[in-house]
Structures are given as structure tokens and as C-alpha cells.
Write a sequence for this structure.
């Protein structure tokens, strides 16, 4: 089993739709969680950290479920500019223990 | 504010030729530095990380090497490239000041022909 797993997609949604991604992790000792966005042929950029209590940033909501070992990202009112690959990142402790999921591709169409 | 730069952005190299990718970080001291590779349609693979000058840890066996001659400089090298070395190479940093958040350079696209 991979340490961090994501549905690769693609998720094809119309503008204005609500879409949700899940990411599961295998190490119950994982400490920190993040969502990154990666545009085609570009570097990943931090979208948001994921806190135990859940957090929201505009149209984006991230949640953590430690009991079931997954994190989620909800995007409301999708925009064309949201089209990208979304990477789940889990930190399990130590300098090298940032584990990246393979990413979920989102395509928003008019 | 902290910034990270890496270069060159794109390069095409013949099989068997050497490689040198360079990365520098500004605005922070004693960062942890990383080299990742992302093959087409794949996730990020950690190649090397460094917690200080001259301290390099390798995650996967390969024909690549890394060096950290200065606190904020990280170099990825190869003496002889293979076709399988093609990919998107990303330098990144974390620091106490950033928590566990990792920040990436712009990336270097390497095509070995």
C-alpha cells in the first residue's frame, strides 16, 4: 500500500460545480498535512495547510479525519482557473518525511 | 521574504554527458534543502536532502549526486546521464521558520536524448 494515495482523476466538472478530493495516508503518526496545487509544467505551490479542526480559505475547505486517516479538499463554485493537479502532502516526522501523493487532476470546463 | 531559485530552467543533454543543476535560497538561514524528481504523469520522488553544509542524504540509488558547498546553495550533478534521467527536477526548502511547509523552486526540465 502506498504511504499517500489519491484518486488520479481526471475530474471533469463544469464551472460553478462543487468538487471534492480525498487523500488517504497509511502512517498513523503523521503530523502535518497540506494541499498543493501544480499547474502544467510548473512547480507545486502551497494551497493550504490542513488543521485538525478543519480550515477554510475562500472557496476552498480542507478537513482532516485522523481516525480514518484521510484528508479532503472541497472546492466550491469552481472556476476555469482552478484547473490543475492537486497534490496531497503528509509529514510524518523528520527532515525527509514529506510524502507526496501522485496528485488528482481537475479540469473545469465552461 | 524567502525566495528560491534554480537553473537552468530547461536543458536537452545527450546520453553520457554531465549534468549540473543549481539552486539557491535567499532570506533564510540553515534551511533544509531537497532535490525531487517528477517523471511525466508521476508523483514527486525525493532524491536527496541536506540539513547542513556538506551533509547529504540520498534516498534512492542512482547515477546522480548532490552537494551543498554553502548554507543556501544546493547542486545536483551527474557524470554521465542516462535516458531514464529525463524529468522535471525540483529544488525545495524547509526551515524552522516555515514549520513543515515546503517551498519549491521553479523547476528544471531535463530531456536526455
Amino acid at each position: 500500500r502506498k504511504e499517500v494515495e489519491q484518486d488520479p482523476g481526471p475530474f471533469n466538472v463544469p464551472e460553478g460545480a462543487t468538487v471534492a478530493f480525498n487523500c488517504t495516508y497509511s502512517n498513523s503518526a503523521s503530523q502535518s498535512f497540506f494541499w498543493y496545487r501544480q499547474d502544467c509544467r510548473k512547480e507545486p505551490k502551497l494551497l493550504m495547510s490542513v488543521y485538525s479542526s478543519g480550515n477554510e480559505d475562500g472557496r476552498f475547505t480542507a478537513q482532516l479525519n485522523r481516525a480514518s486517516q484521510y484528508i479532503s479538499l472541497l472546492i466550491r463554485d469552481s472556476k476555469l482557473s482552478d484547473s490543475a493537479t492537486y497534490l496531497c502532502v503528509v509529514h510524518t516526522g523528520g527532515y525527509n518525511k514529506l510524502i507526496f501523493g501522485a496528485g488528482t487532476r481537475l479540469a473545469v470546463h465552461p | 521574504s524567502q525566495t528560491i531559485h534554480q537553473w537552468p530552467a530547461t536543458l536537452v543533454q545527450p546520453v553520457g554527458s554531465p549534468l549540473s543543476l543549481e539552486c539557491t535560497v535567499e532570506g533564510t538561514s540553515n534551511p533544509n534543502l531537497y532535490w525531487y524528481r517528477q517523471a511525466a504523469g508521476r508523483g514527486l520522488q525525493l532524491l536527496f536532502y541536506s540539513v547542513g553544509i556538506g551533509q547529504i542524504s540520498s534516498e534512492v540509488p542512482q547515477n546522480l549526486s548532490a552537494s551543498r558547498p554553502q548554507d543556501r546553495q544546493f547542486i545536483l550533478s551527474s557524470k554521465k546521464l542516462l535516458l531514464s534521467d529525463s524529468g522535471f527536477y525540483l529544488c525545495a526548502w524547509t526551515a524552522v521558520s516555515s514549520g513543515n511547509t515546503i517551498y519549491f523552486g521553479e523547476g528544471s526540465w531535463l530531456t536526455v536524448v
User: Anything to note?
Assistant: Residues 22 and 41 of chain A are 23 Å apart (CA to CA). The longest strand of chain A covers residues 84-91. The two ends of chain A are 37 Å apart (CA to CA).
